[in-house]
Amino acid sequence: MQEFVINIMNQYGNVGIAILIAIENIFPPIPSELILTFGGFMTTYSNLTVMGVIVSSTIGSLIGAVILYGIGRILNKDILIILCNNKVGKVLHFKAKNIEKSQEWFANKSKYAVLFCRCVPIIRSLISIPAGMSKMNFGEFIILTTIGTIIWNTVITMLGRIAGNSWKLITVKISQYAHFIYLGIGILIIIIILKKIINKKR
User: Fold this and answer.
1) What is the Rg, in whole angstroms, of the alpha carbon atoms belonging to the chain?
2) 11 CB neighbour count, 10 Å cutoff
3) Which residue, among 151, 153, 102, has the nearest Cα to 131 in the 3D structure?
4) φ, ψ at 49 (rounded to 5°)
5) What are the φ/ψ torsions at residue 136 (nearest 5 degrees)?
């Protein structure tokens, strides 16, 4: 995967970065930190500029975010409730009331969620789906996504440029940061599940 990403960027420059970032937003397993840190490093020896990398990666991010937002609009609450009432939903213990509660929460916290989650690996891409599902104002979604994305892209690109030949170390550090985030989310989910079990027993 790493060699493929590097080859695309070396061959197509800013256009390659925009395409890769758009794909990364739709298929999160492609790490944006790899694209951005190497893009930052490329500015030290190629015709690429820091501003060019930031702009192209932001355009790619917006393309991917809009696609996922559209998917979220298609996957509205009614469709999810139907899925919950099917066999698959019952097996997975999905409940319609939980969907309604989660949508209410996102409706109240959507601005903060869309803005700040853009700086969290994996989640930064997937946050576009609940934004679409909650029918968040599209203009507001684009503005908040752009701001959060520019912050993320700028920081990671500059780190790649500063690190130079050691740019791979940045991806390792960000990966470690992501693991802490996942661990925190996992612990939070466990706490929520335990609370539900305790409440049921009561």
Assistant:
1) 19
2) 9
3) 102
4) -115, 160
5) -60, 140
CA atoms within 13 A on the CB side of 137: 6
Is residue 184, in this structure, part of any structural domain at all?
no
> Which amino acid, one-letter code, is at 141?
F
| Alpha helices by DSSP H, 27-137 | 32-42, 50-74, 77-85, 87-91, 96-116, 123-126, 128-133
One-letter amino acid identity for 60? G
201 domain residue, yes or no: no
Residue-number span of the structural domain to which 63 is assigned: 2-76+105-174
Q: How many domains does the chain have?
A: 1
For residue 124, what pLDDT is reported? Answer: 75
Distance in angstroms (rounded) separating the CA atoms of residues 26 and 29: 9
Both tokens assigned to 175: 């990966």
192, part of any domain:
no
- The closest alpha carbon to 114, from 92, 136, 99, belongs to 136
User: pLDDT tens digits, residue range 138-192?
Assistant: 998 999 999 999 999 998 899 888 888 887 777 776 666 666 666 665 666 666 6
The pTM of the full predicted model, rounded to 2 decimals, is: 0.72
How many other CB atoms sit within 10 Å of the CB of residue 200?
A: 7
Residue 145: which of 157, 161, 130, 160 has the closest Cα? 130
| 91 falls within a domain | no
Q: Which of 11, 62, 1, 65 is nearest to 33 (CA)?
A: 1
What confidence score (pLDDT) does residue 87 get?
Answer: 60
Length of the chain: 202
